[in-house]
Amino acid sequence: MTRKIISLTVFISFAVLVLTSILLYIAPHNQMARQVGWTFLSLHKGQWTSLHITGGFLFIVAGIWHTVINWRVLVNYIRNKSRASFKIPVALLAALAINAFIYIGTVAHIPPLEHILNGRGVLGIFYQEQESVSGFRAGD
Ligand code: HEM
After folding, report:
1. pTM (2 d.p.)
2. Measured in angstroms, how far is the CA atom of residue 22 from the centroid of ligand 1?
3. pLDDT tens-digit profile of 51-60?
């Protein structure tokens, strides 16, 4: 029963994180969000940020708990995989390579990571244009 509750909590909190992450990615910066009265499902940006943080903590706690409960299964899975593939843990190496590409690519400004980060800048310019069209000015 505990296993099921923890697994479902990881799943639901991850779904909440996915939603709130997308919203925080596309939402205008805090000051502008307040000025233009940005909301989604009647909640303002500050409320979505709070949900992102508490959902994030729930995800971390439930994720660690989930890993501890399933530790043996995880280790056996990697061992069996490595036996089946000439003792080289191919899946583990592939997962490490994907992660390394993302993190090294981020600090080294390599596309497409650079584009993901720049996308926020493009959205910022878009919101600024909207602001000047609607007559809003920062500090008003
Ligand atoms: C699915 C994984 C996650 C994604 C894709 C994600 C994405 C984001 C994005 C797009 C922002 C907005 C950044 C900005 O405004 O410059 C953000 C902010 C933040 N995230 Fe996450 N996040 C994730 C998981 C987490 C987790 C697990 C935590 C831990 C609690 C967390 C804590 C925060 C905090 C503290 C902020 C700053 C909020 C603020 O503006 O004050 N995130 N995240």
Report:
1. 0.82
2. 10
3. 999 999 999 9
Closest to 65 measured CA to CA, from 10, 16, 13, 18:
10
- Which atom of ligand 1 is found nearest the CA of 21? 7
Question: Among residues 72, 58, 76, 78, which one has the least CA distance to residue 11?
Answer: 58
Contacts of residue 82, Cβ cutoff 8 Å, sequence gap at least 6: 88, 89, 90, 92
Domains of the chain, by residue range, sit at: 2-69+109-133
- The residue whose CA is least distant from atom 34 of ligand 1 is 53
Q: Which atom of ligand 1 is nearest to the CA of 53?
A: 30
Residue whose CA is closest, atom 32 of ligand 1? Answer: 53
Distance CA 59, CA 33 (A): 26
Q: Please enumerate, as own/partner, the contacts of 124-131 that have beta carbons within 8 Å and a separation of 24 or more.
A: 124/28, 124/29, 127/28, 127/29, 127/32, 127/36, 128/32, 130/36, 131/32, 131/35, 131/36
What is the percent of the chain with per-residue pLDDT over 70, rounded to a whole number?
A: 88
Collapsing DSSP to helix, strand or coil, 118 comes out as helix
